[in-house]
Design brief:
single chain; about 1100 residues; alpha+beta; 9-stranded mixed sheet; 14 helices; rod-shaped
Length: about 1100
């Protein structure tokens, strides 16, 4: 009886509580288990398995079947058996059968059958018997003349038809060919031993019949003397096999075994296991698995609930596993005593696909302190996204998935197996390794390998079964097992036991490394991979040469991986791993013309760069050479945005910093792509587009090598802009009759949605973030309105600078010209005097438009164009109120230009007359003397004419402004100085008869003479060279935008009126106030603080001081 059972009877669980404390130090045996070592699960002993572990085939026979002559199969009387299972007696007509060769997969040859006792023994179902003697005959399972002894053609039975109860038939042996005389010492078949060569761990879960085991007491468990071993192999035989192979045995204690069973089992192991060998001890098998075959699971759950370990059955079962495992380990520790640490590995089996099971079992009452290793079964089940449109992964053996799996074929299935290894399996191993490291435990694998099998009815799908079988027989399955095992080692796994040695492919699965014990390695891809892994671990001698890489069909690609390349070289058939740098890559072997090469899928390598591609086989790693180098081109990555916020109105310039940006021409902001400008290989600049919503969007960059990942550092947050602010406008008033174009100055104008003036909308154009050009529509005369700018950030506030005054424009009138005439061949700058010139839009001279500049409401400065003919031209001014009438005071007379002096004509030289010829001979003419140069008289110097001023284009103007005047006359060539009232002034030489002169402003009015100085002298002062300065008009204040304000705070006021052009001072009640001139008709004044009361605002200009008027009154109000 177990301690747990006793606790149940006593109604207490006090004895079950474990001691808390820190994790125990790893024992020497546990440390050894942490080293990667390959082992295997031994296939169950059955009459139908294609594995023959014993030289005595009867050890694998099925238990006796009682038969009766004339009755149906198995309808004989109850069996009378001794303690070893031999038939002691039979009733008349009774006989017994034992199935022994039902699969047909046994060595061909002559078997020798021997027994002790008196009785008749034979075979039926085929084959021939010969050389019969007492207690012996020879048997050949093959039928004479037929080669029918092949897999699946079995059906051979040993039959007893008579036995003497006093000397009953017993100790039957069916010696395999060649072992009649050595079988008692040999025990295990050499082919079986050869298949286990190098294995470091032998797991006996199936040999012990662990799943649904009926054994509770030691006396009921089979012994070496038992007639058959199919109901559980004797512990002595398991130990002897481990000793013979040189492996560590792994025992699974039956779930119902009492403490005496556990203790007796442990003693046998202690005394029989060879020195230096370790025993792995595990309580039962997969106590989390609720499949029908695992009857131990519901049993443990029931026990756990009876002990009130948990309300949920599965949790109760897990905790019962923890408690009973610790009790089992305690008994083994007691039996092994001081050697326990060196000879025992205490194993806790958990569910590989559910890390929660391991956490709960190990943490419950500090179970981890009594455990050396966590055991998982990291099968690769080839789950994948089989169903179109479904992003989830599904097991290929499920009925709803099977149609898609069959459609994909074997290649698609093997690809899914590869992904399963690289993703799901890897994740399971990593999670359990982390937990094992947390507790200071080893991570081992109690079972491992592929897991292709139909479930829930799909096992009856013959096409699916055939597909799974084809995948298991495919040479790429060797590649998958090689990568799978190497990954286990890479991730720090310890002992790993593949499942299992030998078994037929069937609808229940393809579990065997071999399908038949004597199957050649070349035909068994899983066994071949296992053998190569044994070589790599040096568990068997290395039988291959080290690999080399001679070429890669592709030598560069994207860092995202996924490209396929062909790797060629030498000694590649036994490849277990292909690595790019330190990263392993999926691969499979291909044979062409007897040469093996590898088809490799490049793994991901985000940081990019050059890596060496290496191949590993059991003999070692290929050397790195130029031919094995591979270049990764990394995708771009964004590391920062500056700024990381942008206005919804757009226009924000952002600098993006990152890596591998070369080749990028655009940036994607959310769903919008915008152009970008490269600043360097690690930075670029782009302008943010407008967006209607606030919030964060992801920024990505795309190059020929991929798109940058979405990361927090690449997140741009849109925010509304600050409210717009209007500081001033280019005009504070305009005509009521027509539209007025105004420049609005301020800030935060980008993205403006509207501009209003009063209740009306104004057409506008955003020139910059600080300026808008708006067209104010006409409104009624004397209307005062506020201007507002609207953006997504809000609207601007109203204040004095946003006031706009609509004024009815007067029909203009021209009352005089500063110059009333001039030569037609040159333009003339003329001051046009009159009234109503505010908002002038055009000046014409004789109907021809002339450029002009607004000076004041009573004066314009216009440039009268030259013309081809002399004559009078009417000057007219146009404003929104109309065009000025033609008046005599607005006539400009163009005169013909003065004639230019002509040079005097020179007389033509006359030739001298030739002498007439004389009759008769003529004397030789005397040579003419050479002409001698005659001195020429020096020309007498002509005196330069003195300069004379004959007229001015403008004869008068205001004192407070400068004036540009054309000075007409003669003798101006070489002019060096011009004075106005004796004061030198700047000038420009136009011609000998004209200078362009700037007459300065001055403080006093009156007449001044104009004089020109040249090398010939200075012109005299003449009546035509006199300019009259007149004082400007006295300023007038007509309105204050605000006429009340706090006495203790300054108040900003717009002062409207006229004559403000040269304003020099503003006072409020005689106290100076700061001001800014907006126009000739407006000042912006900041009134000072003062005592409560009323005072008048006055403006001072060169024309005087504005009068005290009601319109200029301002009242300071005391605060309450």
């Amino acid at each position: 009886m177990t301690a747990l059972a006793m606790s149940l009877l006593l109604g207490t669980t006090a004895s079950l509580h474990l001691q808390a404390g820190p994790a125990a130090a790893a024992t020497p045996a546990a440390e050894a288990a942490a080293e990667t070592a390959l082992g295997v699960n031994i296939a169950p002993v059955r009459d139908w398995t294609p594995e023959w572990p014993f030289v005595d085939a009867f050890r694998t026979s099925r238990p006796w079947i009682s038969q009766r002559t004339g009755a149906g199969w198995g309808q004989g009387p109850a069996l009378q058996l001794d303690e070893h299972g031999w038939v002691r007696s039979m009733e008349p007509g009774q006989y017994v059968d034992a199935a022994i060769f039902t699969s047909g997969d046994y060595p061909i040859g002559t078997y020798v059958v021997t027994w002790e006792g008196d009785g008749d023994v034979t075979f039926f179902g085929g084959g021939t018997i010969s050389n019969r003697t007492a207690g012996r005959f020879e048997y050949n399972p093959q039928t004479a003349g037929r080669a029918d002894y092949a897999p699946g053609s079995g059906g051979r039975f040993l039959r007893i038809t008579r036995t003497d109860p006093d000397d009953y038939v017993r100790n039957i042996r069916v010696w395999m060919p060649g072992f009649e005389h050595t079988g008692e010492q040999q025990v295990f078949h050499p082919q079986f031993l050869d298949s286990l060569e190098g294995m470091k761990t032998l797991r006996f879960m199936d040999w012990m019949g662990t799943n649904a085991s009926p054994y509770t007491t030691w006396e009921s468990y089979p012994t070496p003397e038992s007639s058959t071993q199919v109901r559980g192999v004797a512990v002595e035989l398991m130990i002897d096999l481990a000793n013979r192979v040189g492996a560590d045995p792994w025992f699974n204690i039956p779930h119902q075994a009492d403490d005496a069973f556990v203790r007796s089992f442990a003693r046998v192991v202690r005394d029989r296991l060879a020195p230096g060998r370790k025993a792995y001890v595990e309580y039962s098998n997969e106590l989390w698995n609720s499949a029908y075959a695992f009857q131990q699971t519901p049993w443990a759950r029931t026990r756990g609930q009876e002990l009130n370990l948990a309300a949920e059955p599965w949790v109760a079962g897990q905790r019962y596993q923890a408690l009973r495992s610790v009790e089992t380990f305690r008994i083994w520790n007691e039996e092994f005593g001081a050697e326990a640490g060196a000879r025992l590995v205490r194993v806790m089996g958990v569910q590989s696909g559910n890390i929660g099971v391991a956490r709960d079992v190990l943490s419950y009452q500090n179970t981890h302190q009594h455990v050396d290793a966590i055991a998982v079964a990291p099968y690769f089940d080839c789950s994948d996204r089989w169903i179109p449109g479904d992003s989830r992964t599904h097991f290929p053996g499920h009925p709803t998935v099977a149609p898609y799996v069959k459609e994909g074929g074997v290649d698609r299935l093997l690809q899914a197996c590869q992904r399963s290894i690289d993703t799901g399996v890897r994740d399971q191993i990593l999670r359990h390794k982390e937990l094992a490291d947390q507790y200071g435990l080893s991570l081992v694998a109690y079972e491992a390998g592929q897991h292709l099998a139909g479930i829930l009815g799909a096992e009856n799908d013959d096409a699916l079964t055939a597909l799974f079988g084809a995948a298991n027989r495919h040479r790429r399955m060797r590649d998958l097992y090689a990568r799978y095992l190497d990954q286990w080692r890479e991730l720090g796994g310890g002992a790993i036991a593949l499942f299992l040695t030998t078994e037929h492919l069937s609808k229940w699965g393809s579990w065997g490394l071999r399908e038949r014990l004597d199957q050649p390695l070349a035909d068994a891809p899983k066994a071949l991979a296992a053998d190569e892994f044994l070589q790599a671990l040096r568990q068997v001698p290395v039988r291959v040469s080290a690999p080399t890489v001679t070429s890669l069909s592709l030598q560069s690609d994207l860092a995202a991986g996924g490209a396929t390349l062909t790797l060629r070289g030498a000694n590649l058939a036994s490849t277990s791993t292909v690595r790019f740098g330190q990263v392993s890559a999926p691969f499979h072997t291909v044979q062409a013309d007897g040469v093996t090469h590898l088809v490799v899928t490049t793994p991901r390598f985000d940081r990019g760069g050059v890596v060496d591609v290496t191949v590993t086989n059991p003999a070692g790693v290929s050397p790195a050479t130029p031919a094995s180098r591979f270049t990764y081109h990394p995708p771009p990555a964004v590391t920062s945005l500056s700024p990381a916020t942008a206005l919804t109105v757009g226009g924000t310039t952002v600098t993006l910093t990152g890596t591998a940006l070369t080749g990028a021409e655009t940036v994607r902001i959310g769903t919008v792509t915008v152009p970008a400008r490269m600043l360097s290989p690690t930075s670029m600049e782009f302008t943010v587009p407008a967006r209607t919503q606030t919030g964060a969007v992801d920024v990505t960059v795309t190059t020929p090598y991929g798109t940058s990942p979405v990361v927090p550092a690449a997140r741009l947050t849109y925010v509304n802009p600050p409210r717009p602010v209007v500081t001033n406008m280019s005009a504070s008033s305009g005509p009521a009759q027509t539209s007025t174009t105004v420049l609005i100055n301020g800030s935060n104008f980008r993205g403006a949605t509207s501009v209003t003036i009063g209740s009306q909308e104004a057409a506008f154009t955003v020139l910059s973030d600080s300026q808008i050009r708006a067209v104010f529509p006409p409104q009624p005369h004397n209307t005062w309105v506020n201007v507002h700018v609207f953006t997504p950030g809000g609207h601007s506030d109203a204040h004095a600078e946003t006031d706009f005054h609509y004024i009815a424009a007067q029909v203009p009138a021209v009352t005089g010209l500063s110059v009333t005439g001039g030569h037609a061949d040159v333009p003339h700058t003329v001051l046009v005097n009159g009234r109503g010139f505010t908002w002038a839009t055009q000046v014409t001279v004789g109907g021809v438009p002339a450029p002009f500049t607004f000076v004041s409401s009573t004066q314009l400065s216009a440039t009268f164009p030259a013309r081809t003919s002399p004559g009078a031209a009417d000057v007219q001014v146009t404003t929104p109120a109309g065009t000025s009438p033609i008046t005599a005071s607005g006539v400009f007379t163009y005169t013909a230009p003065p004639p230019q002096p002509q040079p005097e004509p020179q007389p033509e030289p006359q030739p001298e007359p030739e002498p007439e010829p004389q009759p008769g001979p003529q004397p030789e003419p005397e040579p003419e003397p050479e002409p001698q140069p005659q001195p020429q008289p020096e020309p007498e110097p002509q005196p330069e004419p003195e300069p004379v001023v004959t007229g001015l284009s403008v004869t008068g103007g205001r004192t407070h402004v400068p004036h540009t005047v054309l000075v007409n006359g003669q003798g101006f060539t070489g002019a060096s100085r011009v004075t106005v009232g004796g004061v030198p002034v700047p000038f420009t030489f136009v011609s000998d008869t004209r200078l362009s002169v700037t007459f300065p402003a001055r403080t006093s009015q009156g007449k001044v003479g104009v004089q020109v100085t040249t090398p010939a002298g200075t012109s005299p002062i003449a009546q035509d060279g006199v300019f009259t300065y007149t004082a400007p008009p006295r300023p007038v204040v007509t309105r204050l935008s605000v006429n009340r304000g706090p006495a203790k705070a300054r108040t900003t006021v717009l002062v409207d009126g006229k004559g403000f052009t040269a304003a020099s001072r503003v006072t409020a009640g005689g106290v100076p106030a700061s001001f800014t001139r907006v126009s000739d008709t407006r000042l912006k004044v900041v009134l000072p603080t003062r005592a409560a009361g009323t005072a008048y605002v006055q403006v001072t200009t060169p024309g005087g001081v504005s009068a005290v008027a009601k319109a200029a009154a301002f009242t300071w109000v005391a605060s309450r």
